[in-house]
Design goal:
Strand order of the largest sheet: 2-1-6-5-4-3-7
Distance between the termini: 51 Å
Radius of gyration: 22 Å
Number of strands: 7
Order of helices and strands: HHHHHHHHHEEHEEEEHE
Structural class: alpha+beta
Mean pLDDT: 79
Number of helices: 11
Length: 291
C-alpha cells in the first residue's frame, strides 16, 4: 500500500508534464490522454525498487507508449487517405523544462506558431525520428536515454533527431512568415550589422529609428555596425526576429518594428523567464547560418 501511494503521488506530481510530452509526440489531446492512462496502467504494475529518478522513469514509460501508438498509426496509414493533424492547442511548456542542457548544435525549439505546416512535417517522420526530436529538442532527454527507448545507440538516436530537425527547419523556412518581406528586412539588417556595413544599415533603418536608448538611424547604425555576430535569424512566436543563444539557451531576443519597409524600432529582451517561454525556430540565411 505504501508503494502504491508513492506511485500515485509521483504520477500525480508529473502528470501535467507527461501529458505535454505525449501531446508533443502524438499531436492530439485525446491520444495524449490515452497514452497517459496507458502509462499509468504500466506504472501501477511496475517494480519501483530500482527507480532513482521518477521523472525520467515516467517520461520513458510515456515515450514507449507513444512510440507504440505512432507505429500503430503508421501501419493504419498505409492507405494514403487521411486527415491533416489538428492545429496545436496544448498549453506551452518551456523547452528543457526538466532542467537538462542541449548543445548549441542541437538546439531547435518546436514552434506551435508554425502551425499545421509543422504538424504535417512531424507526421511524415518515422516514429523513431519523431520520438528522438521531441524528447531531445523539446524536453532535453539525453540521446543515451532515447537510444535505450528505441533500442538504438546514442549516436543513432542523435542522427534520427538531426534528420527530423532538418525537416522541421524546412517547414519553418517554407512558412508564410519565413517568406515575408519582414524576414528579408531583418535578414538584411543582421547581414549589414555583422559586416559593419554602415551604408547598408542606413538603407534598412528609418531615419527616426529607435533602439534601446538610441534615436535616429545614424546613432542606431553606429551602435550595431560590427555587432550581432552571434544573433541568428529566427521565427519567434511566428514572427521574424533575431535570437542570441548561449549553450543552446536563448539569452537575448531582438524584435523589429517595420513600417514602410524600414525598421522603425528595435527592442531587446533579456528577461530569462520571458525568454524561457519563447517558441523559436531558427531559419536559414543567405550566408548559410543554419547551425
Amino acid at each position: 500500500m505504501v508503494e502504491q501511494d508513492w506511485l500515485s503521488e509521483r504520477f500525480a506530481e508529473h502528470k501535467g508534464r507527461l501529458h505535454t510530452v505525449a501531446y508533443r509526440m502524438l499531436g492530439s489531446p485525446a491520444d495524449a490522454e490515452d497514452a497517459v492512462q496507458e502509462a499509468w496502467l504500466r506504472v501501477s504494475r511496475a517494480d519501483t525498487g530500482q527507480v532513482e529518478n521518477p521523472a525520467g522513469w515516467l517520461t520513458t514509460i510515456v515515450a514507449r507508449v507513444c512510440l507504440n501508438m505512432l507505429e500503430a498509426r503508421k501501419a493504419r496509414r498505409e492507405d494514403p487517405a487521411g486527415s491533416l493533424p489538428p492545429e496545436p492547442t496544448a498549453p506551452h511548456v518551456p523547452a528543457h523544462s526538466n532542467g537538462g542542457q542541449a548543445g548549441p548544435e542541437d538546439q531547435t525549439l518546436l514552434a506551435d506558431s508554425v502551425g499545421i505546416a509543422l504538424m504535417v512535417v512531424l507526421d511524415t517522420l518515422t516514429p523513431a525520428e519523431r520520438l528522438a526530436f521531441v524528447l531531445h529538442d523539446i524536453f532535453a532527454v539525453s540521446f543515451a536515454e532515447i537510444g535505450a527507448i528505441i533500442d538504438r545507440s546514442p549516436a543513432a538516436a542523435r542522427q534520427l533527431a538531426s534528420r527530423a530537425r532538418q525537416r522541421i527547419r524546412g517547414a519553418a523556412d517554407a512558412s508564410e512568415a519565413a517568406r515575408s518581406r519582414k524576414r528579408e528586412i531583418v535578414e538584411a539588417f543582421l547581414a549589414a550589422a555583422r559586416s559593419a556595413d554602415f551604408t547598408a544599415l542606413l538603407e534598412v533603418l528609418d531615419p527616426d529609428a529607435v533602439a534601446i536608448q538610441m534615436r535616429g538611424s545614424h546613432e542606431v547604425a553606429a551602435f550595431f555596425a560590427g555587432r550581432a555576430q552571434a544573433a541568428r535569424l529566427a521565427l519567434v512566436d511566428g514572427v521574424p526576429a533575431a535570437v542570441w543563444s548561449h549553450r543552446g539557451q536563448p539569452k537575448a531576443l531582438f524584435t523589429f518594428t517595420v513600417h514602410g519597409e524600414k525598421i522603425t524600432r528595435i527592442a531587446v529582451d533579456t528577461d530569462p523567464d520571458r525568454l524561457d517561454a519563447l517558441d523559436v525556430v531558427f531559419l536559414s540565411t543567405r550566408d548559410g547560418d543554419r547551425r
